Amino acid sequence: MPISIRKATEDDTVALSRICLLTADAGKSAETLHEFGALPGLVFAVPYVTLPTTWAFVLQDDDTGAAVGYVVGSTDTRAFEAYAQEHWWPRWAAEYPPERMTRPADVKYAHLLQNMFTASEACMGFAPAHLHINILDAYQDKGWGRRLIERAVEHLKGEGIEGVWLGMDPRNMSARTFYEKLGFREIEGADKNNMGLKFENA
Predict the structure, then answer these.
(1) Domains of the chain, residue spans
(2) Fewest Cβ atoms nearer than 10 Å: which of 73, 167, 168, 180?
(3) Which of 79, 80, 89 is nearest to 116 (CA)?
(4) Residue 201 has pLDDT above 90, yes or no
(5) Whole-prediction pTM value?
(6) How far from 170 is each of 108, 176, 194, CA to CA, in Å?
(7) Are 16 and 56 in contact (CB under 8 A)?
(8) How far apart are CA 27 and CA 29, in angstroms?
């Protein structure tokens, strides 16, 4: 199975959104939870090939040309938050108001678009950069998650950044185990579901 990692572009937004939906329920598909399947990707994937300070890499199945995973993030989380607060979240909040929603998962995201969370000071003290990573189930447990993280670290080092952090679903214990194997640790003073990696430990 030939697989490659390449830089993502805005042409990948549909694929990234799809991957996000298919992994949005603690690593499993959230298709049945959503009537508006674009919502998870609008928060956790698509902005990272669209907004300033962002970067993204795609895991591609070279037999089909399909994107089957990604790692995305921002080099400057506070700048990302400020830009998104003015230019990104209001646009989608207007398109997906909570009163249109009937499914709880959609309602949750609709409210989130109206009042997006921001990174804690503890996370920001650890590193300015954050990331999200998702891989379709059929391509997991084959070493590609590690390769994606390694590519992200390489990119961030090139930007002069010395660490990165992420947030994880507390239900996804396999993801926690994966991150711990790569050297991610809980961040002092942050929510226990935030984990960080200093590149000297990578």
Answers:
(1) 3-201
(2) 180
(3) 89
(4) no
(5) 0.95
(6) 17, 8, 10
(7) yes
(8) 7
